[in-house]
Amino acid sequence: MAFHPPPYPLIAAAAAALALFALQRFFVRLRRDRLFADTPAVRLRSAAQGYVKATGRVEPAGPAATAAPLSCRPCVWWAYEIAHAERDSRGNVHWHTIDSGTSVELFTLTDDDGASCLVGPVQAEITPSVHNVWYGLAPRPPGPPPEPAPLLHTGDWRYTERLLGVGERVCVMGELRSHSETGDLTAAVAAKLHEWKQDQCSLLERFDTDHDGRLNAAEWEAARLAAVQECQTQTLQAAISRVSVISEPENGEPFLIAPLSEAQLEKRELRFAALHFTLGLLGVIACAWALAHL
Amino acid sequence: MLAMLIVLFLVIALAGYLIGIYNGLVRVRAAVKLAWSNIDVLLVQRHDELPKLVEVSKQYMQYEAATLERVMRARAGVDAARSSGNVASLGAAERELRTGLTGLYAVAENYPQLKASEPFRHLQDRISGLETAIADRREVYNEAVNANNVRIAAFPDLLIAQLGDFPPAQLLHIQTEEKADVDLKAAFSR
């Protein structure tokens, strides 16, 4: 039987690629750690537009919570995957994804002041509060995952579900955008004058100071000013509806939703940075070892 | 070979780390400026609202010119401090304005017609809302300042900060007069 030496050039190239990838991830994680640490948390009631960090509890935006597609559990966000086991000629099992999906539904974030805003989870990096994997014999699971999870699984179908539960306390980092509906003062003034013109008698009675039966330029200007004043007062009195949404930042900063505290988030990034650094170092050692055997 | 590659890896990692520190310092410095701008926007809004409040009050409080003038003087003081970007003088001017406004609201209690006036109540609510938002954003500003100042004073950022233009930023303090200790002895000796 002929001895085949390991493919050293291939190992060296793969190890070098791994080292470079790990190094790049190390830098990314360090940057994120600093970003999380240096971005102050805002209060939603007075938050300025732009990239923000906010903490609070998540609630459904509508009257009822969303039902998770596989387990039907109430949640504000879900992602699922259904995979089927297929065996090759050697008997090895390969899982093929048959169906998957991620929720795009908005949900509400309410902070400690009671102020709230919407969160649009599209393109968000979400850390779920619940992550279940269970197995079955049918393409769709008959119900929620068994509790407690069995040690051995049976069935060719694998169901994976990740949820963000109702009422979870989360930290959200993303771009806050607000839309106010204050109305157009010019249009309101025009409408007011039009309304007054419909009742010529009242208009003359109010603004025809020289009593000649018609409004001259000065009298018309007085009427216009009165309309402006009245509209301004009405605008002041009207409740300004302001809808704020946290969504994906346009400048490429991370859009993150995690049921973790700010300190836990920073620690997580540091742990990943250390892991990637170690991985990079191991890649370099493997690369050097393979090159030495060339 | 192994040693050379490991040294190369460590050098690249260190260089990237230092670049990351520099960029991080730039970001916290920019965050301080942004937080200041976010307060500035609200100060301008309140600056525009105050004359309306004084104008409405004037119609009922003809004999309280001194109170109204004090508010307008303090308003001008805040605007001057805001325009110059002087954080210390803004704190003092804000204190003066808050004292003036508290005085105005207290005097307004003696004028039931003014208190019942819709425009006055709406302007009072609007200005109170702005005051709350300014206070909230002051917290965010001070947190940004703290992050900046801790970064430039902590190792290893300190080394990079000394090479570049990374000065410490100033916290925005608005001390209210009520915070001062009350001289109980003097109060009871009257």
Largest interface: A-B, 32 and 36 residues
Give the number of domains of chain B. 1
> Strand-residue fraction of chain B?
under 5%
- The percentage helix of chain A is 25-40%
Number of strands of chain A: 13
Assigned CATH architecture of chain B: Up-down Bundle
Tell me how many strands of chain B there are: 0
Question: Would you give an account of this structure?
Answer:
The complex is a heterodimer of chains A (294) and B (190). Chain A is α+β, with helices and mostly antiparallel strands and 294 residues long. Chain A is built from 5 helices and 13 strands. In chain A, strands 1-6-7-12-11 form a 5-stranded mixed β-barrel. The mean pLDDT of chain A is 87. Chain B is mainly α and 190 residues long. Helix content of chain B is 81%, strand content 0%. Chain B has helices at residues 2-58, 65-84, 87-108, 112-116, 118-153, 157-163, 184-189. The termini of chain B are far apart.
Output the keywords.
heterodimer, A: 294 residues, alpha+beta, 3 domains, four-stranded antiparallel beta sheet, 5 helices, B: 190 residues, mainly alpha, de novo design (two linked rop proteins), 7 helices, 0% strand
How would you summarize this macromolecular structure in one to three sentences?
The complex is a heterodimer of chains A (294) and B (190). Chain A has 5 helices and 13 strands.
What's the layout of helices and strands?
The complex is a heterodimer of chains A (294) and B (190).
Chain A: H1 8-38, E1 50-60, E2 66-67, E3 74-75, E4 77-87, E5 93-102, E6 107-110, E7 116-119, E8 125-126, E9 130-136, E10 157-164, E11 169-181, H2 185-198, H3 200-207, H4 217-237, E12 241-247, E13 256-258, H5 262-292
Parallel strand pairs in A: 7-12, 8-13
Antiparallel strand pairs in A: 1-6, 1-11, 2-3, 4-5, 4-10, 6-7, 9-10, 11-12, 11-13
Helix pairs in contact in A: 1-5, 2-4
Chain B: H1 2-58, H2 65-84, H3 87-108, H4 112-116, H5 118-153, H6 157-163, H7 184-189
